[in-house]
Amino acid sequence: MDHAHEPRTHSVIDPAILYWGTPVVLITSTNEDGTSNVAPMSSVFWLGQNCMLGLGSSGKTPQNILRTRQCVLNLPDDSAFMTTAVNALACTTGTEIVPLAKKGRGYIHVKDKWQRAQITPLKSDLIEPWRVKECPVQMECELVAKHDMFGNEPGRLGACIGLEVVVRRVHIRDELRLEGYAARIDPDKWRPMIMSFQQLYGLRHEKLAQSVLGKIDEEMYR
User: Fold this and answer.
1) Whole-number Å distance between alpha carbons of 86 and 90
2) What GO molecular function terms would the record report (predicted)?
């Protein structure tokens, strides 16, 4: 079949970021002084009981996880409260000396992110990092492996890392459980928060709110 004269439907572009849409996660980890850090991220996927986390290596969260080998993955829903909390944590870092790349994007150091986001800590069952009470899903995890990324770019190996963690315990809000089953989630009731090209969405058509992270020029990620 000759397609030479068909209307053009695609263009070649070179976007600075490729965040096509993944769940937002609030990762909690333990600082050197025993306090708990909380940070939003969305480069994440699950396979079986394991999860891959994509993180910039200069942040407090990966430093804590590599040191303690523990973290909690707290999943916010698309409620107005959680949207406000995630936006409050965007552009903050637990690292006292803000990395240059983050400073250029407007990040600031915040020691007590729990107070800033108005969220509540809960003790975990098996590990040290706290859970976020307001998140409907909380997963206690342990580190399995680390993978240095960007090896294809000269001088950038390890600038970002992939951390494989295994989920040791899942806490879920009771109303999200599928009726008639001991250990299943009702997908009709679970409404995750989704990050798509720095904007916050739920499982509906419109934005949840104007994203704080979305104010950063995408070209700054090159």
Assistant:
1) 6
2) FMN binding
